[in-house]
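Q: My collaborator sent me two sequences in one message, no labels, and asked for predicted structures for both. Can we handle them in order? The first one she listed is below.
A: Yes, handling them in the order given. First sequence, followed by its structure tokens:
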Amino acid sequence: WRRQRRAANDACKQDVVGQYHPMETAEAITLAADLLTLPEDWKAHFRRRAASLIISIVYDHPPLDKEDCSGTSFETIAQITDRIMKWCKTWKASCGLLAMDGVYPPPSLIDGVKERMASGTIRSCFTTNLIDNMSSNKLSSEENAWLAGTMYIGGSETSATMLPWFLIAMLLYPEVQQRAQDEIDTVVGRSRAPNFADFDQLPYIQAVVKELLRWRSPVLLGIPHTTSEDDWYDGMFIPKGTSCLPHIWLLNRDPELFGPDAADFNPARFLDGTGRLRTDMPADHFSYGFGRRICVGQHVANDILFIDIAVILWSTKIERGRDANGELIPMDRDGYLEHGLVVNPLPFDCKILPRFPEVSSILDNEKELRGL
């Protein structure tokens, strides 16, 4: 576990993840174009984007279309997760490898990476990092294949979960949407889409990302930790060796940390009086976990959310759905559905509209420049 953890961390460090920015930007552009072409299919667009981007980051696989994500080419996330859960109940700790009783991610994916590395026709990706550092990581080919597969599974499911929550936040808090779009218009304008070169000049968008992860964590509970010694908490004795599950959802709403409006979506809580990001907060959120088991993909996830949100808000208006009488369709702001390991919002209606007349042609030009 430690060797795989170290290898994954090295491939996802903050000073490394910039190599994934071209893939992330291309997928954000494609997502925005899809949303404007068929806005009623936003759920399918989010699922496609999640699977396509993560498989690009992990394997430098070409972008997927909707047919690729239908389950004919790749197993659904739920199917793969179910197989992992069954395996976790039966694996033998004494075996030297992380074996799954013969169940592995499709070998063609990692074999394809090796072939393209040999021919010099691949961009840097998570798997190339693993292969280049096999000796220092002390991982076998099978362990590399399994680690790459688990990164794809975890990244796809959590990534697909956050964007629907983002839509809900924009529907419930239109003033946040407006302020974010004002910042984007000031910094980026309307002649091109946002990119990572704009990152430092978009502090409010960065705050929206932080607040989204705090307000609606993709998971309710964190990874279990075991107490290393006897302890007491609030008058209760916790013996050494006790498994403790952090209540992420509740911690993210602690009014002592996030203020009396902790239940509300308010990105401004992360900004100082000058509009820059605050540096005095003890924590942004707890959605990535704690300690040695903190999410190794947190920097990648932050970058993905930043560029997706920036491009979506630059290109679209997100509005509440209305019924046949023109009345706003009610929304359940607090309801959720647990699906596998993540928490999804209840079904809701929304309208996704172009922000200005030229936006679709600009997105088409951006796609053409990237060969999409």
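Q: And the one she listed second?
A: Here it is, processed independently of the first:
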Amino acid sequence: MASWTFSNIVKDDSLTVIVGISLASAIAFSTYYLSFVAKVPNIHCGNKKLKSLLLSRVPCLSRRYWVTPWCIEPRLHTILSMPVFHTKEPISYEREILVLHDGGEVALDWKHKCLTHSKGDPILILLPGLTGDSQTFYVRKLVQAVSEAGWCCVVFQNRGLAGVRLKTPRTYCAANFEDFKEVLDHVVKKHPESPLAALGVSLGGLILGNYLCVAGENTPLTTAVIISAPWDVFISSESLQKPWMNRALNQHLAKALCNMYLRSCSSYDP
């Protein structure tokens, strides 16, 4: 009887410890989540009128953003979402090949019926990330949302991507927006009556931002949006060298760029 009682006491004490640790962990996580994760977005805007307009027209900017509690790491968001979005049906595009001034070629994928039937509807030029194209999962989600809002959409894919081989010994980088400028001029010429906007993601955002810094007000764009572009590319580059997740991402991107070159290296004599 004494042995049975002692055993139960030990079990009760173990259960108490487990409950105590679980409760303390829940309190600690909740405190961290409410203090550092679920926050009101920071609005950095030098134009006070624009800031007031944004806050009045986009009410979610004044509310806390409740990040998914069981997945607060932003890189894990991308990893876990990929299997879900990759199962979706691909979007139907009409492809246009644009020959650039130096003989290089880029693919412009127009959302179905937008290439020849815009008729003055607003057009969004979408610039994907480093190795992205029109079927990349986040691009498809953006194109779908833009189309549902009544906009035409064209995805500008950099040289060597989306099945288009390199025609010249030149690729692309964030510091050069010449290809985007040619694409923009081409869209303006093809649809002079349509209001134009541009949206760049990651590397596409850097290219778009670089263009806007130089063009200033001398641009046919009425609106521009930059998503997930580094504030400081040097710090971002250093971050990509850190283990383990960042380095794995860096290796994936480097491999994709090498594969792009290998697919195209037989297309011209170096």
